[in-house]
Amino acid sequence: MNIKYIGLSEINGPLVVLDKCKNVSYDEIADIELDNGTHRLARVVEVYEDKAVLQVFEGTKGLSLKNTTTSFEGRPMELPLSGEMLGRIFNGAGKPIDGLGEIVAEESRDINGSPLNPVSRVYPRNYINTGISSIDALMTLIRGQKLPIFSGSGLSHNKLAVQIVRQAKIADEAGQDFAVVFGAMGVTNDVADYFRRSFEETGVLQRVAMFLNLSNDPIIERILTPKCALTCAEYLAFEKNMHILVILTDMTSYAEALREFSSSKGEIPGRKGYPGYLYSDLAAIYERAGIVKGSSGSVTQIPILTMPNDDITHPVPDLTGYITEGQIVLDRNLDATGIYPGVAILPSLSRLMKDGIGEGYTREDHQMCANQLFAAYAKVQDARSLASVIGEEELTDTDKAYLKFGNLFEEHFINQGFETNRSIEETLDLGWALLSTLPKSELDRVDDEHLEKFYKPEEATF
């Protein structure tokens, strides 16, 4: 029997408190009917004896303490799922907003996901080709990995996200089963229009499911957006056997919504006011990437987050770095000089890269080429620091060679433009051409066999 409760005992921000509730569960969905007949969705976020605290998704504006009717549905929030979700645009709570009608659901699933036995996980191997040299060569995205992008306010992370969606493809014969789930949280209308327009103009929208939460939408919806996006991704990956790349932007907006919600509940704040459970909450999102036994599909994540004041020790990037398998860091100085994408090579890494590249995946020389490019670019920074103290003319010939290499590396390798889509072979060949501008004796991360094969200074004309 469905019991309806009339009236509320308290309204506080996005939260309402209900007294004398029976058999109410945490995370249960409730339907709130206003005195004008309209309905709003709510979720139980706290239960204490016979009291229940509910989070109202559409906000509490217009709610009455006396004439509001609440009924509980006895289930958590679920997302209707279907293969038809590709090519569609949804709001942060999973409701279609593209004017094409409701999804004909094949099934519905709890947006919080199902517990996954760690033993059933398969170790990620093989890579996803993004067409971006700095990523593909030096911090390769492995299928089933979670690899965040650390950016700053005003940097070109949105542009980079669009380029990755447009160019990303699986490296083997399974490429036709590749799709993208795109979740945007707290973005402005013009940014949302940019994403939508870019995907439509480049023709990739048919293989993209978009979940858009705008900056003027309720913060509660913002908390649901990554969960809805990942529920869609898991269904397509593990039921439809597709390879799904999930891009979530901006995770800092998600964390700030969580902080605001935690504050309204009166919880004790942690670092910079974020709730103490921020780590476990982020982990519950990031750990939904991976490959599972019995399915030929996979879920790969690229969360994008903006670092306040470009501070990489801020709680959101700091905790994200603990949970994920590496990071791609964008550099403001490179961006200011017109280099796109402005990837900071030295603080960036992919911890699973070594197991998804090389012979049988990319090319046999990939690891050595990447190691040597990293080592050489690290020496470029040393040479630049020395030149700033004693002057460039006082440097040794080797240091001058490194300065030249550094400028060429940034101009031709890191900087490739928004329209350029390089294959892994083109990227590695370009890397070797740049390394060939250095003295052969400096290439100490490459064995003699590959040095003989790929070191060709006579062809290194830039």
Descriptive notes:
Residues 355-455 form the ATP synthase A/B type C-terminal domain. InterPro entries: ATP-synt_VA_C, ATPase_F1/V1/A1_a/bsu_N, ATPase_F1/V1/A1_a/bsu_nucl-bd, P-loop_NTPase, V-ATPase_su_B/beta. The chain contains twelve helices and 21 strands. It is an alpha/beta fold. The chain has three domains: 4-75, Thrombin, subunit H; 79-355, 3-Layer(aba) Sandwich (Rossmann fold), CATH 3.40.50; 366-459, no CATH class. The strands form five sheets. Strands 9-16-15-17-19-13-20-21 form an eight-stranded mixed beta sheet, with helices on both faces. Helix 4 packs across helix 5 (251-264).
Q: Secondary-structure blueprint of this entry?
A:
Blueprint: E1 4-6, E2 10-12, E3 15-18, E4 28-33, E5 39-48, E6 51-56, E7 69-76, E8 78-81, E9 89-91, E10 107-110, E11 121-122, E12 128-129, H1 133-138, E13 149-151, H2 157-167, E14 169-170, E15 178-187, H3 189-201, E16 208-214, H4 219-238, E17 243-249, H5 251-264, H6 278-286, E18 291-292, E19 298-306, H7 315-323, E20 326-330, H8 332-336, E21 343-350, H9 366-390, H10 397-414, H11 424-435, H12 448-454
Sum up the structure in keywords.
single chain, Thrombin, subunit H, Rossmann fold, 3 domains, 8-stranded mixed beta sheet, 7-stranded antiparallel beta sheet, ATP binding, ion transport, ATP synthesis, V-ATPase_su_B/beta
